[in-house]
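Annotated sample (chain length 420).
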Amino acid sequence: MSAFARDDQGRLCAGGMPLGDIAASHGSPLYVYSGDGIRDDYRRFAAAVAPVDGAVHFALKANSALGVIGLLARHGAGADIVSGGEMARALAAGIPAEKIVFSGVGKSAEEIGAALDAGIGQINAESPQEVEAISQIAAARGVQAPVALRVNVDVAPKTHAKISTGQRSTKFGVSTSQNEAAELYREMAADPHIRPAGLAVHIGSQIMELDPFERAYSALLSFGTALRDEGLEVPVLDLGGGIGVDYQHGTPTDFTAYGELVSRLFADSGFRLGFEPGRSIVANNGVLLTRVIYVKDGDNKRFAIVDAAMNDLLRPTLYEAHHDIQPVGPEGPIEGPADIVGPVCETGDYLGLDRMMPSLAAGDCLAVMSAGAYGAVMASNYNTRPPAGEVMVLDGDVHILRRRRDVAELLAEEIIPDFG
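Output written by the structure step:
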């Protein structure tokens, strides 16, 4: 069942609460998350992979709102992080340190030290230089660092080039060809300051077919088995995330086939598994509400100029991404195509182009659908525009997660030097 549905009066609702009423109470632009939907999708993912011995870590880069992380923590999720800031968020939201996996290609010495001090469960290293840095920092603290090696198995994930991480032409992981990864893992196993935690792979995001996963996972399984056959400890195979979602229609993601694939490949392998879903848990459980400021008729098209912009939701501009856009009130007859654009002084500032829309007028509230992932988390203050606030609908109540700051607060963060 979709997290957002129309009631018997035709109003778009979250948990039975009309989105128009939420916008009237909390302003716009505004992100609204369905806490019920996030909880249910996490449970469905966990159930799909339950037949194998594994742990689920939510990828904070998809949505790092403390309220979202805290809800998932309450239901047993760990965290997949890519920065020291995300580690602080995960800990603040109640995720135990031992259930945190630290991914990413460019961890600083300060971030590595903080991760070791916190006692996080796994650091995914992505280069010989990083392994050496982790070893030195662990030695200085007199501890063993739990390090998994992220490998690059050269699998094209059939997704957008900017979110494709599985090929050797990208910056991610250590190649499994010509023995590079195997030799580095042997060095890790011999290092007294490193406890080899296993192997990790992540080939990209928004992957809609299972074949790339099967090829990547099969290669990882073969590589891990070969290292074990040498007598090396390889406790975990971390499978990453990347399951795609339906942005066109917002239908819930079916994790059944993915779970069956994982079970078929790994059920009797003897490896513990790690999973890092992000987008598939939150994307279709969030919307961005925005109000029409003006409707402008151009020479050959209609423009609906709204109060949300590319600083609030960057995906359409950055990835040419599609988000369905709907009126939150009862839907009238289609009048024709319209570009839904924001106030930012860029031609690329749009939320949707050539969308078949009903008659629109100033004050109308629209919902940009499937905005729960890589939405608020990528927001900026471009044009000195405070980004949208965030609320969550859970069990029939609206909870404020982050209010929209005002311009005065943005200015207060800066300092004008004494120029003399």
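Annotation: The chain has a mean pLDDT of 93.
Annotation: DSSP finds twelve helices and 21 strands in the chain.
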